[in-house]
Specification:
This protein has about 350 residues and is an alpha+beta fold. Helix content is about 60%, strand content about 20%.
């Protein structure tokens, strides 16, 4: 049962976290505005677009990126206050166990924040990133890539497509062909001078097409000026950037990864890292909460300053290790799942050690 003591600690935990995060977000917005205001004015961006199209989507991104660090700092800050005022000693003297303090109010608070992070990581922030990118394309960087050339792509285990050019903006391609091969034999081929996506029908419209179906020695040939046809690909197959992984919700990312596996995409590792990271980072909140409590619950002569210094050192080491592990995944064939979870594993072991040696 949650008692008044638990509610007191939960309020301290969440209150400190949201207050420090709010202050930093305000500072981050002011700094970002000071850096970009000249560009906004130069491109005549409407104020409403700046507020709703850019900053309403910039804030979720910056909050999610820094929330584990600020959760860690919040735990150390208010737990150090409790320790310096001998409140933790008083709580322990009243018969409440050390682990009872950790496992009820601290972990309840951490789990609430983990749930928010998990939802934001998988759905909210990717949507915000996509809208922020669309803002940049519309108002700031009008040179965004609009055309792909010499496309060769596998879209199913047996089917391949080829295009001379593809215009991303109007969703049209030139000199298109599609081939289906089974048992090393061509069984179907479709060629067209031009191909265009029809959004209403979710179909491709082919101009000046030639369609061949081959079955043994029998061949069926059909030609014409226009053909509307559903095919196993759509415009989302083209124009993908590596950075687009941050603009996909997790269900969209899963579909994209399955598609890239079939295509044999070169950048698959980056997308797998992004997928696993979205679950690993919220879990790190739990580990950092345990580490922060284990460090700051000890009353030291140096007081809060020592605790904060230790906390910044540990959090910096965590960030550095995460960067190193993901670099090894992209450049040294370290499995992406292991690369993303390795910092959690190492610091999870550290949290258990610090918890065991903490004074009780």
């Amino acid at each position: 049962m949650i008692k008044k003591l638990d509610l007191y600690i939960i309020r301290k935990f969440l209150g400190t976290f949201f207050f420090t995060l709010l202050l930093f977000v305000l500072v981050a917005v002011v700094i970002d505005l000071s850096e970009n205001v000249d560009d906004f004015l130069e491109h005549n961006v409407p104020i409403k677009a700046v507020l709703t199209g850019y900053y309403m989507n910039f804030i979720p991104y910056i909050v999610l990126m820094l929330s584990p660090l600020f959760i860690f700092i919040a735990v150390i800050f208010f737990t150090s206050q409790l320790a310096s005022r001998s409140e933790i000693v008083a709580i322990l003297s009243s018969g409440v166990s050390f682990y009872r303090i950790l496992f009820v109010p601290y972990l309840i608070s951490a789990i609430l924040l983990i749930a928010l992070q998990y939802y934001a990581n998988h759905y909210l922030v990717p949507t915000a990133n996509r809208q922020r990118f669309e803002f940049n394309v519309e108002y700031m960087d009008k040179r965004e890539k609009r055309r792909e050339n010499n496309i060769s792509m596998q879209i199913t285990p047996d089917t391949y497509i080829f295009m001379k050019t593809y215009n991303i903006k109007d969703q049209t391609g030139t000199r298109f062909s599609m081939e289906t091969v089974k048992d090393s034999e061509l069984i179907y081929k479709l060629k067209s001078d031009k191909i265009k996506w029809i959004e209403d029908k979710k179909e491709w419209q082919l101009s000046n097409f030639v369609e061949r179906s081959i079955e043994g020695l029998k061949e069926n040939l059909e030609t014409g000026k226009k053909l509307d046809k559903k095919m196993a690909f759509d415009p989302s197959y083209f124009g993908q950037r590596v950075s687009a992984k941050e603009e996909m919700t997790t269900p969209e990312l899963d579909k994209f990864i399955e598609r890239e596996k079939i295509k044999g995409g070169n950048n698959l590792t980056f997308f797998l890292i992004e997928k696993y990271r979205r679950s690993a980072v919220p879990f790190a909140t739990l580990i950092l909460t345990i580490i922060g409590f284990s460090i700051a619950s000890r009353k030291t002569r140096g007081g809060m300053g020592v605790h904060i210094l230790i906390g910044i050192t540990i959090s910096s080491a965590f960030v550095v290790m995460m960067q190193f592990s993901t670099t090894f995944a992209t450049n040294a064939n370290l499995p992406p799942l292991l690369a993303v979870w390795l910092p959690n594993i190492v610091f999870g072991v550290l949290s258990v050690i610090l918890l065991r040696v903490a004074p009780k």
